[in-house]
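Box S2. Input/output pair 1.
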Amino acid sequence: MTTANAVQQDNVLNGVNVTKLGQTIEAVKQQPEIAQFKFRARNQWDNGGHNVATVDTFYGTSQEMEHKQPFVMHADEPAVLLGDDNGANPVEFVLAGLSGCMTTTLAYHAAGRGLQIEDISSEFEGDIDLQGLLGTNPKVRSGYQEIRVKFKVKGDIDEQTIHELLRKSPVYDTLANPVKIRIEVEKV
């Protein structure tokens, strides 16, 4: 008589390991403190509009952690804004961060609900009036006045659910709601 050990296969949907997602949700319910994360970035100015941000460590699941490799992002301005165009400008990074977060959030939450997605594409566009940044008009804010987002989603999910899930994005929430920013300066 032989016994076969049944190996449970993880359920993967939309490229998301739904089995592990469920285990993570359950672990957070049992130990809410493991849900506290701190993400970090360091930045070093190079010259003009060019600076380099590095992301390599973060805090999560009650411990310090490292990415498998440091991520280095060059920011600069296009020539029309007096830069050398050695990277996306910072407000373009905001759009890229928003796009990545909303897409990931949609894929994860849809998978968690058992909704299959075949394809997600999106376009992001934002309006900035340089009068705010340059200080030539005190009535104009420095940041985005409006960001427009267009998603195209193919799969087993209705439009209302897509809207609901996209609004769960942490970056969307950060931009849509005021967040306190504390600035500390050390003159060296």
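Box S3. Input/output pair 2.
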Amino acid sequence: MKTHNRYSPEVRERAVRMVFDHVREYDSQWSAIVSISSKIGCTAETLRRWVRRTEIDTGRRGGQTSGDRSRIMALEREVRELRRVNEILRKASAFFAQAELDRRRK
């Protein structure tokens, strides 16, 4: 279940940029995230997820990029639809084959 998107993309980008720019001023990236998240009004975990997603998308961290994830989801949707269509066609083929056999007997 997806909740309402409360933060604009500009706010997200700015917050992530602030973490990357000011991480050297803190003991760890987490302490920078905690400090900056309180300033922009989101939870530290939310900002951490934004930072991780940006790191993955820019190649700083290994993982599946957002573009790849959306492409895979679209392909999975297509596969589900094609399987559903194939099942319908298989049942229709069996139905008409049986109807043809019944017609020949008469």
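Caption for Box S3: Residues 66-105 form the longest helix (40 residues). The helical segments are 9-22, 29-40, 44-58, 66-105.
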